[in-house]
Design brief:
With 306 residues, the chain is an alpha/beta fold. It is built from eleven helices and eleven strands. Helices cover 38% and strands 18% of the residues.
Length: 306
């Protein structure tokens, strides 16, 4: 039997079992002695290993735990209807169980949580439902909380999300190698702003060897597309006012032509949250961590110090 796929093979692994039978690999990167533990959740269609160079930066000052979400990387998910297995609240609930697993592994009473895109949205969903985990710091990079009718960003979000959902279903699943995928993505759209090491890490982490030769996307396009669609149908925005804790929201630059709708919605979203601190990052897009990893690491360290 071949070894299980790992999006971050250089790190130690904890396998976290979810109540429905999903198993999510949690990668552990040791930091300095006594460093605070930090749990990281990645974006839809990516994996923990997509951020490897950045996670190593974070490990300069924290003990990092990064996981592959269900449907991504080296995760295992149960059979069943896609709408059930990848439901918005199930993805959010995973964070609660992952937090408990990391707390048990470290003996920590509280963790820092950092999420990007899907990981950030799942964290805000969990907090908005009143299911507050043991997090002392929450940093959310570009959380795609869909703006409802009546908000300034609604029309832009509807059109861009429709194109995203439809386009994701057409993703090419098979590739000759991670390098071939990197060559295809290099210089295209938002990937043009990636640091080279971040692009290479992303391509290694999101392709697994295929039994028929070559490589296959770890996250099936149907799963990625459904997650995009279901997140846009969730009522999380209407619950944001219930989040009674400090959250740092980090957004990209809405002025960039190829940017997602999330950057446009974030200032309005931050105003809905009673204790949110909004930090805009100029000249970055939705995948801002891969574009300016050192700057994003500094933001996380600032939040930890605060």
């Amino acid at each position: 039997m071949s070894a299980p796929f790992r999006s971050l093979p250089s790190a130690a692994v904890i396998e976290a079992a979810m109540p429905d039978g999903a198993v999510l690999p949690v990668y552990r990167m040791a930091g300095p002695a006594g460093a605070p533990p930090l749990l990281f959740g990645h974006a839809n269609g990516m994996a923990a290993g997509s951020y490897e160079p950045w996670l190593r930066m974070l490990a300069e000052r924290t003990e990092v735990f990064a996981f592959d979400a269900r449907g991504h990387g080296g995760s295992i998910w149960p059979e069943g209807a896609i709408a059930t297995v990848f439901a918005v609240d199930r993805i959010a609930d995973d964070l609660l169980h992952l937090t408990r697993a990391v707390a048990a592994a470290t003996g920590a009473q509280e963790l820092a949580f950092v999420g990007h895109s899907l990981g950030a949205a799942a964290a805000l969903r969990l907090l908005a439902l009143g299911r507050a985990p043991q997090w002392r710091v929450v940093v959310a990079f570009e959380p795609p909380i869909f703006p409802p009718p009546g908000t300034a960003a609604h029309a832009e979000a509807v059109e861009k999300q429709r194109r995203l959902v439809e386009g994701t279903l057409k993703r090419r699943e098979h590739w000759a190698s991670p390098e071939a995928l990197a060559e295809r993505l290099k210089g295209r759209g938002m990937f043009a702003r990636f640091e080279p090491a971040m692009l290479a890490a992303h391509c290694r982490a999101t392709l697994r060897p295929d039994d028929g030769g070559g490589f296959r996307l770890c996250c099936p396009p149907a799963v990625e597309s459904f997650i995009f669609k279901s997140q846009s149908e969730a009522d999380t925005w209407h619950r944001l006012g219930l989040i009674a804790r400090d959250v740092t929201l980090v957004g990209g630059d809405a002025a960039i032509p190829d940017n997602d709708w999330v950057s446009s919605a974030l200032p309005e979203m931050a105003a809905v949250m009673p204790r949110a601190r909004f930090v805009p990052m100029r000249c970055t897009g939705h995948l801002l961590i891969s574009e300016q990893p050192r700057r994003c690491a500094e933001l996380v360290w600032d939040a930890l110090r605060a």
